Amino acid sequence: MSDWLFHGDYAAAPLDLPKLVLGLLLAFLCGQAIAWIYMATHSGLSYSKSFTSSLVLMPVLVSLVMQVLNNNLVTAFGLMAVFAIVRFRNILRDTLDTGYVLAVIVLGMSCGTAKFSTAVIGCMTVSFVLLMLWYISFGSRHRFDLILNLHWERNPDELVFLQRLLERHSLKSYCTSQRSSSAQQGVDLSYRLLLRDPNRSEELLHELRTLEGVSRLTSMKAENESEV
Question: Are the C-beta atoms of 153 and 112 separated by less than 8 Å?
Fold first, then answer.
C-alpha cells in the first residue's frame, strides 16, 4: 500500500514526495500567519469568518494546483476552462464555497492526469485543513460579552461612578455611543463589555439598576463577530 502511495503517479513528471508535503505544509503555515494577522488588525464592520477561513485554505489549494500543473500548459488551460464553467453556471456568494469548488476541481484534475499519489495526499491534506477549521471554529472573534444601553440622568462629570462600577465587573469596557438631547436632561450611553465572569452578568445589571442616575437600562449578549 505504501509503495502505491509513494509511487502511484503515472504522469510524465515523477512525484517528488518531500517537495509535495513540504509545499502543502508551508502553504498551510503561511495561510495561518496571514489569517491571524487579518483577525488581529481588521477593524471594519464587514468581518467574515468564512473569508478568514479561506485565507488558510487557499494557499494549500494553490500549492496543490501548482503541483498538479507542473509546467504543463495543457493542464493549466484545462483548469481555467473547468473553473470558468463552474463560475458561469453557479454564483458563489461565500468565499469558502469557492475554496470547496476549487478543491474538487484540482483533485479531479490530479486523478485525470494520472497523478494518483498527489490526489490522495492532497485530498488528505485539504480534508484535514477543512475539518480543523470547522472543529475549532477558526475565524470567530469574541471581543465583548455584553452590550449595555442606558440613560444617565446625573451630571456628566459624575460618570466616573458608573465607569468604576463597569471596571469592577469587566476586563474591558468601551463606550460606543454617547448622545445628549436638549429636550431632556442627561445623556444616552451605549457600552460594550468584556466581563471578568460572564456568568455574573445579572449581578452587574442588578448593581446598575440600583445605581443613582441610571434609567432605561437594557442589555444584550454580544455574539461572535462574523458576517452572515
Answer: no
| Cβ burial, residue 71 (10 Å; 0-12/13-18/19+) | exposed
Q: Domain 146-221: give its CATH architecture.
A: 2-Layer Sandwich (3.30)
Cell of 45: 464592520
225 Rama sector, left if φ>0, alpha if ψ -120 to 50, beta otherwise: beta
pTM recorded for the entire structure: 0.66
Q: What 3-state class would DSSP assign to 146?
A: strand
pLDDT tens readout for residues 3-57: 666 666 766 666 778 888 899 999 999 999 999 998 888 876 677 888 889 999 9
In the chain, CATH 3.30.70.60 sits at 146-221
Which amino acid would we find at residue 206?
H
3-state secondary structure of 226: coil
- Per-residue pLDDT, 91: 67
Specify the DSSP element, H or E, that contains 218.
strand 214-221
Q: How far is CA 206 from the centre of its chain?
A: 35
Mean pLDDT for the chain overall:
81
Cβ atoms 96, 226 nearer than 8 A? no
